[in-house]
Amino acid sequence: MESFNEDDIQYQQAKRQVDRLRGFYSHLFVYIMVNSIIVYYNYESLKPGESYFQFKNFFTATFWGIGLLAHAVTVFLFKSDMIRKWENKKIKEILERQNKQ
């Protein structure tokens, strides 16, 4: 098995990507769990003859879903050089500050 040097830039970038993936999947899990509870509560609180398909029953899932979609885009699709350059610049700044101390 290959050992990794934690100072290696490629290792750090891969670790950051894994952290982003873990964050997204945690977000997705919480989204599913919370919205399942909301769906159950909304279903149980329906009056006889009332339809479930009302905007109020989908409000949280809709707008939180938009946020989840934005999170997915940033994790899976939007891997621009601008973000990597900014991250590398910030890493260098932090390391320089730590070395001065």
TrEMBL record:
Name the record gives this protein: Histidine kinase
Residue ranges occupied by any 2TM domain in the UniProt entry: 12-95
Organism expressing this protein natively: Chryseobacterium lactis
Keyword terms, alphabetized: Kinase, Membrane, Transferase, Transmembrane, Transmembrane helix
Residues annotated as transmembrane: 24-43, 58-78
InterPro entries listed in its UniProt record: 2TM_dom
Domain of life from the UniProt record: Bacteria
Single GO MF descriptor: kinase activity
